[in-house]
């Protein structure tokens, strides 16, 4: 599975609709301080269901919406779409046969988030469940930032196990069992 494209509109500094293609196996985002490099990573994490404003470097969830600049007024909605290539069928369930998966999230100033999977409105849970066990969740190892490696090395056996279970694809089943037991 590979991230092919990110489309942003109204998200943080990306006020105008912006498409970022990732055509090669390895891409780098470069630019001066404050140009929006980390905002791109925040966008990926946000779409995959991140629910902590702090993890998106803000105080509240609506801080992801473009807040205005000296030249532009604030706007009321932010939206980001991630397009994944799924030709190896890594996703479970009904989406396994799809060549391309689009995941989209929108938020308005009332903090209402709306999620879409291949254009169809869905729940946040549908997205987290879809990516669980693939290594792609908001806090999984697909996003390695400063400090992630040392945190891994220093983690306790129980914490390390969480990563291994995600890599092995069994976290999805553990989550389902937990839900069933709680019913
Ligand atoms: P560095 O190299 O210092 O890490 P960076 O390229 O990662 O920089 P980001 O942190 O992605 O930069 O972007 C910061 C910019 O995004 C700031 O100029 C900030 O004003 C702008 N920004 C963040 N949130 C919003 C928002 N809600 N509305 C408008 N601009 C925003
Ligand atoms: Mg940065």
Automatic annotation (TrEMBL):
Binding residues for ATP: 32-39
Domain of life: Bacteria
TM region positions: none
Subcellular location, record wording: Cytoplasm
Quaternary organization: Homodimer.
Description of its domains: Contains large globular domains required for ATP hydrolysis at each terminus and a third globular domain forming a flexible hinge near the middle of the molecule. These domains are separated by coiled-coil structures.
Family: Belongs to the SMC family.
Purpose: Required for chromosome condensation and partitioning.
Protein name from the UniProt record: Chromosome partition protein Smc
Organism of provenance: Shewanella saliphila
Gene label: smc
Included range, full protein: 1 to 183 of 1141
């Amino acid at each position: 599975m590979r991230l092919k494209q990110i489309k942003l509109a109204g998200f943080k500094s990306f006020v105008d609709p912006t498409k970022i293609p990732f055509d090669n196996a390895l891409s780098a985002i470069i630019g001066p301080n404050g140009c929006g490099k980390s905002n791109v990573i925040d966008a990926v994490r946000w779409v995959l269901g991140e629910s902590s404003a702090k993890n998106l470097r803000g105080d509240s969830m609506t801080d992801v919406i473009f807040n205005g600049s000296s030249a532009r007024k604030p706007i009321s909605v932010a939206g980001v779409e991630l397009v994944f290539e799924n030709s190896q069928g890594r996703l479970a369930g009904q989406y396994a046969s799809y060549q391309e998966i689009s995941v989209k999230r929108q938020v308005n100033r009332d903090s209402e988030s709306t999620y879409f999977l291949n254009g169809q409105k869905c729940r946040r849970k549908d997205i987290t469940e879809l990516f669980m066990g693939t290594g792609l969740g908001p806090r999984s190892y697909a996003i390695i930032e400063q400090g992630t490696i040392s945190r891994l090395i220093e983690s306790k056996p129980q914490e390390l196990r969480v990563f291994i279970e995600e890599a092995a694809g069994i976290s999805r089943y553990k989550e389902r069992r937990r839900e069933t037991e709680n019913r």
